[in-house]
Amino acid sequence: MADDGVWRALADPTRRLILDELAECDGQSLSGICARLATRHALGLTRQAVSQHLAVLEAAGLVWVRRRGRYRLHDLNTAPLERLAVRWLAPDPAGDAP
Q1: Residues near 76 by beta carbon (within 8 Å), at least 6 away in sequence
Q2: DSSP string of 71-91?
Q3: Between vectors from CA 34 to CA 29 and to CA 39, what angle results, nearest 5°?
Q4: Which of 72, 56, 71, 57 is closest to 23 using CA atoms?
């Protein structure tokens, strides 16, 4: 199922923190994300570890990457989350809801 990657990405608490940080401040570089995780959450992750988490989030479609010069900037993409929410929040067409 297409949403499996989103669920897998959301299962990790560090990745959820990264999404929280991107929700608060979009367009962050890897260094910026590492700094925010270290200062705001006391997470001493290596750049490589954060990069691997970002790769999982990107593969799930939760993060978009754009280039600005030599920097890769990361933006939150909420569309996969909206798909998941609509899946259960949409009204029941048959009216069979308990």
Answers
A1: 19, 22, 23, 26, 62, 63, 64
A2: EEEEEE--HHHHHHHHHHHS-
A3: 125
A4: 57
Residue 21: half-sphere exposure toward Cβ, Cα within 13 Å: 25
Cβ–Cβ < 8 Å for 31, 74:
no
pLDDT tens digits along 2-41: 688 999 999 999 999 999 999 999 999 999 999 999 999 9
Q: What are phi and psi of 25, to 5 degrees?
A: -150, 95
pTM of the model: 0.85
Q: Hey, what are 18's tokens?
A: 């990264």
Helices (H), 1-98: 4-10, 13-24, 30-41, 47-59, 79-89
Q: pLDDT of 46-70, one tens digit each?
A: 999 999 999 999 999 999 999 999 9
Question: Buried (b) or exposed (e) across 29-56, using 16+ Cβ within 10 A?
Answer: ebeebbebbeeeeebebeeeebeebbeb
